[in-house]
Please model this.
Amino acid sequence: MKNPYLPLPVRIEKVVVETEDNNVKTFSLCFVNKEDEGGFTYTPGQFAEVSVLGKGEAPFGMASSPTQPGCLEFTVSKAGVVTTALHNMEAGGIVGVRGPLGNGYPVEALKGSNVVMIGGGFGFSTLRALTNFLLDDANRGSFGDVTVIYGARSPGLLLYKDELKQWQERTDLHLYLTVDVGDQEWRGRVGVVPKVAKDIAPGSENTYAVICGPPVMIRFTLPVIKELGFTADRTLLSLEMRMKCGLGMCGRCNIGAKYVCRDGPVFSLAELNQLPQEFWG
Amino acid sequence: MRAKIIRKDDVAGLLESLMEEYEVFAPVKRDGLVLFERISSASEVFLDYQNSVMPPKQLTFPQTETLFGYSSAKGEVKIEVPHREEKPQLIFGIRPCDASSFVVLDRVFDGEEYKDTYYLERREKTVTVSMGCVKPRSTCFCSSVAGGPFSTDGSDLLLTDIGDKYVAQIVSDKGAQLLEEREFRDATEDELASAATVVKAAEASMGPGVEMDGLKDKLDSSFDDPIWHQLTEKCLSCGICTFLCPTCHCFDIVDEAVDSNGERIRIWDSCQFPLFTLQASGLNPRPTVKERFRQRMMHKFSYFLDRYGRVGCVGCGRCITECPVNLDLRQVLNSVSRLEGVK
Model:
């Protein structure tokens, strides 16, 4: 029997401060034992429990794409005990990773379709993983149009700035960036994500909408998506809940009979419509 | 039915012989409380009880448990799972409800994809010698939840008190082995008939319990019904119902560390506590007593059924007897069952 509670040791290879408020950092974590790397096969949208020994563990979606093998990336907002401890660590430090956990985005089902990703805040991390997965040379031909609508409260809070610049150069990706409030240098869109989604109005024919962001963004984005003609089974959401075990045993992340850690974190709106409406708090 | 006879005068001798092979846990009375404890002498056992205050759940799922210890030095981290060289354990006198709770917990911890190795190793080494309930309590409702005062679910042996002896029904291979290694004679037809009379009388004495017909549908459709506010108004969120519940399995995982050494510990937690689902962002999907109490009912009587094909309750009634504000789960569920205008 494999003990599912044991973390694999990983070394912090690189730490990137993502936001101007220093509150969000991306950690590049590399397996200390190379043989562990091969056992950790994941799809975009899956997550892992990251351990800071002595402080505890917390779940984060992988921000890296499995098409970029090697180290795992996690984008972490400083909020509680574990994330604060992680933020205080530097390259070279040893932490633990347990996973991959959860279902991830249904990349096989997306094949042959267009994909519109709508993200906000640091919830964008697994959509970044999905974008890189779809844009990978080996995969790009399997998918139709790829559109990314991504917003943050201010320009300084947008993640992955260098990568966004590279994405803007690409002809096989429609990238729309927006901020709630601009600044003197910002020349892009200003407006909240749901409004921008409405203005851009991506076509819904043969298209999946994939949404990840704060509850308030989701709440106002869903009606827009519906109006654009996206059906509930082609509207995918990645949810967040407090978790501990990640295995469907510790009993805290359920919505109705579904565990977000085991059956999710990715659900179609059609699935969520069958469940008690308990996830927005 | 295969059954042997154990004379009451022989129970002490049987326990002494079992103690050579097993860690034996049995009901013991301490400071007026009946609890399952490890015994070192048969004289400690107290069998004139209806049920223990706490279920013997901690014998397979301890309240706190070290998942692993770790130490780090010079960039190297060592992780060690505590080595357990435990004797097999035998629970003598466990009630049928509590024995069946292990079958409920198995559903959670023995998953298709993930196995809780800590629970399963202990479970594998556990033998249950159950004592059927001649006098069920007024708060017992095992018969409502597919059990009964003499249910064999989760037992290896089931004892039925027929006066000066027990009829020991063999339920599993473990139970068969235990008796066959020792010299007990087969039960006679007359003795089996006496046992059947005792069982029938006990079953007939059970209260009305919970109306299970259609309950799940009512629960599923009453999620947003205002009745949950009324039903849960007096709940204090103290969580004793969950801590005394033989099937509650929710837990927290925490680290305890001194310098660079420490342990990761699993500890029982409760869905009745406000912090249970509080996210770091400040969002809490179950912010008040109403949502948390409803979650407890829904989890046991709807979600568990969906997920594992049986209800997550064995009807022991501890959540009723020990509730400080006399909130009665049977009344709560029956109120939902009787809701009108809800499907």
Q: What stands out?
A: Chain B has two domains: 3-204, 215-337.
